[in-house]
Fold this protein.
Amino acid sequence: MRTTTPPGGVSATPPSGVRRIRLPQKLRNTELWLLIVACMINAAAIVLVQLGAMGGIDTQLVLLGVGLSVLAFGMHIAMRFVARDADPFLLPIATVLNGLGIAMIYRIDIANAESGWESASVRQIVWSAIAIIAGIVTIVLLRNHRVLFRYTYLSGLIAIVLLLLPLVPGLGHREGGAQVWISIGIATFQPGEIAKIALAVFFAGYLVRNRDSLSMVGRKFLGMQFPRARDLGPLLVVWALSMAVIVFQRDLGTALLYFGLFLVMLYVATSRLSWVVLGLGLFIGGALVASQTLDYVGNRFANWLDPFNPERFDQEFGGSYQVVQGLFGLANGGLIGTGWGQGRPDITPVPQSDYIIASLGEELGLAGVFAILALYVLFVARGFRIGFAGQDDFGKLLGVGLAFVIALQVFIVVGGVTRVIPLTGLTTPFLAAGGSSLVAHWIIVALLLRLSDTVRNHPRLVIDG
Amino acid sequence: MNRELKRVTIVALLMFLALFVSSTIIQFVQAESLAADPRNSRTLYESYSVERGPILVGGDPIAFSQPTDDLYKFQRVYSNGPLYAPVTGYIPVNGEATGLEQSLNSYLSGQSSSQFFDSLNRLISGQDPMGASVEVAIDPVLQQASWDALGDYTGAVIVTEPATGRILAMVTKPTYDPNALAVHDSAAVQATYEGLLADPTDPLFNRATGGDMNPPGSVFKLVVTAAALESGRYTPESTFPNPSSLTLPGTDSVVRNSGGGTCGGGSEVTLATALRLSCNIPFAELGMELGDTAIRQQAEKFGFNSEFEIPTATEVSTYPRGLDEPQTALTAFGQGDVRATPMQMAMVSAAIANGGIVMNPNLVDSITAPDFTPLQEFEPAEFGRAISEQTANTMVEMMVNGVENGAASNARIDGVSVAGKTGTAENGEDDPYTLWFTGFAPADNPQYAITVLVENGGGLGQEGFGNLIAAPVAKEVLEAVLNQ
């Protein structure tokens, strides 16, 4: 299968004349229309926020929003040249989610009377610009995803280094209890977000290389074939890594994210359910031990199970105040929401990052939450589609991994807010305030676009050939 | 690989399904119970975002909500804030409301049960929600006159309508501007509030209905006189020994009359004269003869030891139980452990003016929905009969005498018969006196019952007395409405 990619690393483009006649950029035109709709929704959201919360229009921020739209269109134009057959839905979905996030962050800024370059919304716009440019650069420079396969182990190393950076004295920076930031001059950065991509690349490359030994040998037990002890190594290493994140970085959500990503990619690569059973067992065991021994994990579990307990609600540190306020906010939104700028999302702590889904749920209602979740479902589905239609195992695995990591991250953070699971601090992809998260997710968009472009133009190569 | 992919796809879909279900449960199924949680501050803030109904005096708003473009949508404005502060109170963006803003909050914010269908109707017809308007009983002329007459004194003026208990004026000084506590800046509100709280002159007190409770002094002699006449054992002509000093039994305490000598000369003095000249020794003797139980029972018939909501809660005026003889003697001229608000003393005067029947004091006339349907009319309500009509008539005569040729002479108004009683209450040994006047006018057809309280000796320490300071204030207020 791997050999279906032509040698040379760069995807072979058929004579352009032929392609133009057969497929006159139909996908890109679809994307263009969707992108126009996305930008219109974003502009409307900003304007409605201003009307709802201030009763007037501030043209400065609208102009900044327009600048962002220009960048999104820039990415679209770049793809007309370097990724003509890429999926037409990914870019508009990412754009509209990013825009809705900015509108909500801006709305919280108004509530907190913050404006100018110090405000979260302006920073988010700047970060969005950087993130989209990073996406454009990725898709322009990376003309064939198989290049990444060569850097499997380098990616693994980068991931480890990025994960360890926040623990380096003087560089690390603690916020909200979690030691996951690094501070460089004026900006703080969460290297763990970028590590996510490096890990996905590493897992994909490693598993493609070693899938045979991981899947073929082993003993049958309880109807499942369990791996040999010596093949448990990678699983144990990733498990240890996740536990280290829980203990040293105090970040339950990130640990769950990394470990879930690894398990799913491992399962897809080896078809062995036993890996999943083993892995889940290890993780749940580890989490239970952590909940008994680490205060912050224990608090999270207690807040999840019994948030309305007055004792938990009034507890000054690690209490359930935030969880309960988030629920109050969502309830305040009801079915159709209070409308932009009409609710009180600012009552909930960190309404623009961890709790942005509660803020959006308050002002856009259940209808808005459903729409946002549906956008994520569509985004993830387009990613899985690459997995189904992909031509090479590395690309398939990477596509599935990147799509699943988005799904899992949405599940962990939204599930935490809505009490499906204990609350853990993670950013909501594209929506939440946070530069590193934006950059990481726009690079994921670029990678998925690159993968989908490869998927699309392969069958035609066969026909052409 | 595709088989596994399918399974992973199903897992991802299940994860999203869980999120769809959980958000539906919170935002639809549990929405109402979450909104009803007392810790849900959003429900509280909702009450700020509806157009709160106005508080009206004679049809003019003294508190109303003005649209703003900030998060609260409406700014509460108190026109003539300091003048009406004891009536309206204030509603801050953080913390608790006071005054009518607090006691009638559910009406003003449109959330009372009687407004349910009105709110529903407004919702369906696309109108913005709006609270009910509250018309208070205050007479703007009397209110302003009371404010002006009280001048720079620390104290209060309250005017009621004897037949109904309607409060026509309620002024307290020093006071505050409720507008400063209604700004949409929590930190500023907090700073202002703490400043007012720390102010030694206690501007947040409503001295008409509470504050640091004062001994009523000689105005309480009205209650003791009523108790005596009601007992059937005394008439205005009943006599008492008239020494120039009285040592209370079993103590070293010596009671003197305010002038220092005997009460109007002679070896004996009548009850009528004792009240007219406001002598302490005859009342101390009378009090000991009546006993504390009789005095307390009479006081309670006037409203002492009872809670009144006007509908804002007020402080309870107290006459304690289980007093010994010397203590009873002290309370008989309003010293000792008896405490009264101006509102309570106004109820005493008003009851005498009203043929003996005590009306519940009440600040509010009516509450009207935004569509002008009346939600609640406040009918006059009796607290009960304190004294017989005959006793009342007798006491009217005695009080008129007190103003015409007695200790309350400075309340005289040409052409109008005024009934009144002054009081000069001692606090600590060297503390300034508390000065009182309570009465009503016109005496033959009482329209206004008025009580004036001046704390801190009116600035004169122990030199001030009721007739010098408090009676002229009452005179000035009554003149504003009677000499037109």
Observations:
- The mean pLDDT of chain A is 84.
